[in-house]
Amino acid sequence: MLSMSYGFRIVAETNYPVSGNNGCIAGTIFRVNPLWKGRAPLPPVTHQDSIRFRENQVSIPPAPSVRFKPVLFIAGMLLYPCSAGADMLAVAVGHGIIHSQGSNAVFLSYQTDAPTLFNQKSLFDLSIAHWSGGNYNTALTVARTLRWKLAPKNYFAGTLGIGMVDRTTDHLGTHGQFVARLVFGRKFGKYDLSIGETHYSNGKKALRHNWDGPNKGEDFLTVMLARDF
Fold first, then answer.
1. Does residue 167 share a domain with residue 212?
2. Is 2 a residue whose pLDDT tops 80?
3. Which domain holds residue 135?
4. What does the pLDDT look like over 5-64, one tens digit per residue?
5. Per-residue pLDDT at 69 exceeds 60
6. What is the pLDDT of residue 221?
7. Same domain, 106 and 50
8. Is residue 17 domain-shared with residue 101, that is, in the same domain?
9. Who has greater pLDDT, 180 or 229?
């Protein structure tokens, strides 16, 4: 017991300890007993008081484990220091395939030169996309593109990045998504024309993680026209 000189005393009662389960916080019950003249102090803590204290505690569940290695790899690839280079604006249209049949998509992208990666030409890519249909959505992504030159003006490119979608649907069960794109393209002076396939999913199977919700993904065949500035 700790007595104070301000007309009350604080009593620490430990006869009925409260044990913590599942992350609950266990501790001692404190009571403030007034020492006003003519009034009796409050009764001591009972066993029922300790039970009520335990029931009112908040249980903090353990955080789920997440496989971060693929995410860290992509983040490191995206944040690799950039160098000054040409900027390019691109617009693309796409038609849904596989689970996305019946939908149409439009993409707007800003691309800029990045340092070579794996000894190949590289670009940073910031894109916004929207597609129609029963699982309509809007996506914002940041990605890194690698280009392999097939001929003086022809190339093959692969893009990998991360992003967010505006809503969860029967095809995309989480807001966080990965984006992957494969294209064949050709340069025409300052213009760039390419055809390819774009895929969105949360990597549920690839990462072997049991995220809630569906992960059918969205897939589009695309035609893109870009211009250097």
1. yes
2. no
3. 69-228
4. 445 444 444 444 444 444 444 444 444 455 444 555 555 656 565 555 455 554 444 444
5. no
6. 97
7. no
8. no
9. 180
Judgement on whether residues 105 and 45 belong to the same structural domain of the protein: no
CATH number, domain of 152, equals: 2.40.160.20
183 lies in a domain? yes
pLDDT mean over 97-114: 94
For residue 75, with 0-12 CB atoms within 10 Å meaning exposed, 13-18 middle and 19 or more buried, which class applies? middle
SS3 readout for the chain: CEECCCCEEEEEECCCCCCCCCCCCCCCEEEEEECCCCCCCCCCCCHHHHHHHHHCCCCCCCCCCCCCHHHHHHHHHHHCCCCCCCEEEEEEEEEEEHHHCCCEEEEEEEEEEEEEECCEEEEEEEEEEEECCCCCEEEEEEEEEEEEECCCCEEEEEEEEEEEECCCCCCCCCCEEEEEEEEEEEEECCEEEEEEEEEEECCCCCCCCCCCCCCCCEEEEEEEEEEEC
Total domains present in the chain: 2
- What average pLDDT does this structure show over 152-156? 94
CA 210/CA 168 separation, integer angstroms: 16
Question: What's at 72, amino acid-wise?
Answer: L
**189: which 2 tokens?**
């002076």
Question: Does 63 map to a domain?
Answer: no
Q: Is the pLDDT of residue 202 over 50?
A: yes
The sign of the CA dihedral 208, 175, 146, 67 is negative
With a pLDDT cut of 70, the percent of the chain lying above it is 58
| Same domain, yes or no: 114 and 29 | no
Do 50 and 162 fall into the same domain?
Answer: no
